[in-house]
Design a protein that fits this description.
By secondary structure, this protein is mainly α. It has a domain at 8-47. The chain contains 3 helices and no strands. The chain has helices at residues 10-23, 27-41, 68-76. The longest helix has 15 residues, at 27-41. 0% of the residues are buried.
């Protein structure tokens, strides 16, 4: 276990003390449980840290159209046209 030191605002420290007394826990246990709750709320981001989001590769497909004029007409029509 790693030992660390933190600073808390007085009102927060009083709340931590209150929880510790009510639950019959140590202040360290309250802090550990709080840290566990925060770690669960913010799961790790997949991929390398700091790599950022990248566009996915383009979909490799071909539009197979036997009559380009029919495709244009279907795109311009108000209703759906079966090709």
């Amino acid at each position: 276990m790693i030992r660390t030191q933190i600073q808390l605002p007085d009102p927060l420290y009083r709340e931590v003390q209150r929880v510790a007394q009510e639950q019959d826990w140590s202040i360290a246990e309250v802090m550990r449980r709080g840290a566990e709750a925060v770690a669960r709320a913010y799961p790790p981001i997949k991929g390398r840290a700091g790599s950022g989001w990248k566009l996915p590769p383009p979909i490799q497909s071909q539009l197979l159209v036997s009559d380009p004029a029919a495709l244009k007409e279907a795109m311009m029509a108000d209703g759906e046209t079966m090709l």
